[in-house]
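help with this:

***
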Amino acid sequence: MKIAILMTCHNRREHTLNCLEKVYQQNLAVDLYLVDDGSTDGTWEAVKKLFPIVKLIKGNGNLFWGGGMQLAFLEAMKFDYDYYIWLNDDIQLVPNALKILLDTHIYLAERGYHKSIVTGSLQDPITGMVTYGGRVRLKPWHPLKFGWVKPTEKPLECETMNGNCVLIPNAVAKEVGNIDPIFTHRRGDFDYGLRARKLGCSIWVAPGYVGTCARNSISGTYMDVNLSLRERLKKLDHPKELSSKEWKLYVKRHGGKFWFLFWLNPYVSLIISSVLHKIKVKKTDKDSGQSN
């Protein structure tokens, strides 16, 4: 089997090096494509020295996750691999993680699911809760509201996935193609899964957990209610967050005939949460002043 691991990184040298070490401890023959998107912390030099077999690709510093993974995928697809595995560099893989993904796809293919994407579930290293993996719609009337799937001992079908650790067989890559370059950082993975399903592919959660990965903090992001409304709205349109142009395309593509309502939802929710937080703070200050 020809297997390509696809990664992208930016100024997370220790995370990146640790992840590469875990990959090469998997006892699988793989080609690893790593896009270094303008790191200034010595990542490029360290990878070349410690892992000279890695196929390094230099980014322009503005690729983010979507652009970096799209570039790695593009380069790898030139060589027609049997499998492509998306992998984030902040994951602590378990020793047999990649084998779990491969064995799951083989199991599914034997049962007729040849065009099946397999996503690996990740858990918080402290709480053990699911952090990334397969996703399913929470409500039938809301096509863009997804919850996590808790893995079991058997593969579970889902509707889309986080892109942290995902196996894509060649048949799916040929059917769906690359990550859509319109998505700079977020939703490129969800969009890929949803497009794959529309094209007749299936998505499955592999049994158990393939590693650990803490969920990204909301502190300092548009979801942080401690920031002013103006700051939150400004952050909301950043490429790493909502990005109005990308959000509109995503919602129109996957939101159904009432897509406009779902497009408005994050803006309305942000304003409401900011107003409620402001009222709460004023009430707390008032109660504190009275008690003194």
About this structure: The mean pLDDT is 94. The radius of gyration is 20 Å.
